[in-house]
Amino acid sequence: MTTVDVPHSSRSVVLTVSGVVEETSDARSLVFDVPADQRSKFDYKPGQFLTLRIPSDQTGSVARCYSLASSPFSDAEPKVTVKRTVDGYGSNWLCDNVKVGDTIEVLPPSGVFTPKSLDHDFLLWGAGSGITPVMSILKSALSEGSGKVVLVYANRDENSVIFRDELRSLAAQYPTRLTVLHWLESLQGLPTPDQFATLAAPFTGFESFMCGPGPFMDTVHKALAEAGVPRNQVHAEVFNSLAGDPFLDVELEEITAEEAADAASVSVTLDGETHEMSWPRKQTLVDIMLAKGLDVPYSCQEGECGSCACTVLEGKVEMGNSEILDPEDIAAGYILGCQARPLTDNLKIEF
């Protein structure tokens, strides 16, 4: 049995695994029992993810992000789905070792791959385990929304289809609202942008959300552009392995009197509330918000997960690692709070 008793940070929580579902030969879902006193901390939006702390003999632990496949509206407990990846330490460890009753240290839900409204019509794209956050959005839209949902789901073959029975059941339950289109590489080969553009053509007014391997996402991006879908209707989820340890509490550098005097001023809107703060030039936006005790969304602090994405409404910042953002995102004013430092004296930022 794998047990963790005490969390390693003030943000993390130790959860008990209440269920293990073998989805396919190389994918399984882990269901978590969230204690009553932690439930508000684990409220989540469709499409968000959890960060799990996985034991390691070599490094003590590794942190890995796994999307929630459950819906906060129709599922009683949060569930993440893990697919083995070749040489992937975290995924193989979770698939080989975790049993019901085990405990795992987890950070609260995070991520911005989530619809602003569930009443849209949705064109959803998933490949392999990329179905996970897409499934959360799909179930939530059907449960709470009023629009149509079209899912394009690509896999190697029929045996690789995660949630096959659940998708069949949902299609039967919502025959006029849900359409599931399977793309099997074993039958159809790898999809081309032209083929996906043909699939997308009747649904150019729908909001598109996609998750899967890089080549698949590139194909979908090209297909949607070819079909004439506006860029602001296209949303992509990208995961990178985390090099640092997000389970350690952040320690802020001390600021000298000179640095404090030279600090910028920033107005930050978070969850509808506006906060006025001093922003020393060498600290990141996430740093100063944490120092003020604000519940800023963040996970990795490396610019790899996108949890802290926000919009600059006024002013300019310099950015560290921002590869997870598309050029279109940056042009629209998106930044990563964990990588941003002020360039101008006055800024206005919205989460």
TrEMBL record:
Pfam families, sorted: FAD_binding_6, Fer2, NAD_binding_1
Enzyme Commission number(s) from the entry: 1.14.15.30
Recorded catalytic activity of this chain's protein: androsta-1,4-diene-3,17-dione + 2 reduced [2Fe-2S]-[ferredoxin] + O2 + 2 H(+) = 9alpha-hydroxyandrosta-1,4-diene-3,17-dione + 2 oxidized [2Fe-2S]-[ferredoxin] + H2O
UniProt keyword Metal-binding present: yes
Cofactor(s) it depends on: FAD
Keywords: 2Fe-2S, Cholesterol metabolism, FAD, Flavoprotein, Iron, Iron-sulfur, Lipid degradation, Lipid metabolism, Metal-binding, Oxidoreductase, Steroid metabolism, Sterol metabolism
FAD-binding FR-type domain sequence ranges: 10-116
Highest taxon above the source species: Bacteria
Biological processes, Gene Ontology terms: cholesterol metabolic process; lipid catabolic process
Gene Ontology molecular function, alphabetical: 2 iron, 2 sulfur cluster binding; 3-ketosteroid 9-alpha-monooxygenase activity; FAD binding; metal ion binding
Residues covered by the 2Fe-2S ferredoxin-type domain: 264-351
Matches recorded under PANTHER family: 1,2-PHENYLACETYL-COA EPOXIDASE, SUBUNIT E (PTHR47354:SF8), NADH OXIDOREDUCTASE HCR (PTHR47354)
Name used for this protein in its record: 3-ketosteroid-9-alpha-monooxygenase, ferredoxin reductase component
